[in-house]
Amino acid sequence: MKLAIVIQNFPPMIAGAGRQAALQARLISTRLGGCEVITTRFRSDLPPRAEMDLVRVRRLATLRGDCLRPAANFLASLFYFLLHGHRYRILHAHCLSPFTLGAIIGGKLWRRRVLLKICAIGRGGDIAKVKRQLLGRMLWRVFLKSDIFIAVTPTVAEEMLFHNVPTHKIVVIPNAVAPDLTEMPDRATRSRARAALGLHDDPIVLFVGWLLHQKGLDVLVRAWAEVVQTHRAKLVLVGGGPETERIRSWIQASGCSDSVRMFGWRSDPETFYRASDIFAFPSRSESFGNALAEAMAHGLAVVTTPVGLARHWIRDGENGILVPGDEPGLLALALRRLIEDGPLRERLGRQARADALTIFSTEAAVESFVNLYRRLDGSSVTTPC
User: What was the pLDDT predicted at 201?
Assistant: First the structure.
């Protein structure tokens, strides 16, 4: 079984499809004896090269200009798989993009089997973006030639069905998390992590991810301005994106800049999870929410909106707190409650961790993918790549 994992950007610094692709490539390579990642970009510092020994990364040269990049990415992957597609038995494509489109066409011309993972849904999601393009419906019909569609939640599967993906082609496999913790972080672990980051012992509320409008950071900042009127705590934002300067301006205008730290992009989000007490994730739209799953696996009490994985796997008051979107007052109320109540934080965090390590298990995800590969390959025996 020769496997190619195809993804346009591999991997980004913190979360998302690229981080999942890196984790998946490493784990599946360990199981199968190796695989190849075909991409346009590779950051050698994440994950460490020592963890990628079994994964060969092929970076295809493309153009940098925004106008020409989509066409260049499409042609790069198309020509690569026209020339080398015979070397692979299975293509595992992450997200809908010109790069994966070229790979699918090239692979299908060699009659190779294709798994396609939809990474974003809604108006700004993968399928919507394709269909808005010139000849978009024709392009979507090409993507529909894939043999299996991977949905990370039942909600993603529902959107696939709406866009005419046959039921028998859809498989739900939640994203996996791989925390390097055997136990819940104790006070000493948390103190060491805080010291490494230059943070004090006040309760820490954490956000990790892209700073985008859909993430609800404006709601979080307004809620935080209410929280710090009555409580001593620190809000830590880890990530970057187009909303960075706007969020910084909101923080300054709200008068709570002394209680907020913005760290930008970091390659060590695990240190922030260990240092924190609460994870705030007031997103307006999610297909999954990798950072939320990672926070749960690290035993943090989470406050989130009922989107993405939270819609299916967060039980309000049992393993987290759910709040409506665009409601800063209710978000502030939930944050105050957790800041005040240490035993509640610990109870929610322990249950969140237990659920995350079961539902988002790396072992379960890898087993699901390997079984799919075997099924598509017509093989009942695992063989090295």
Answer: 83
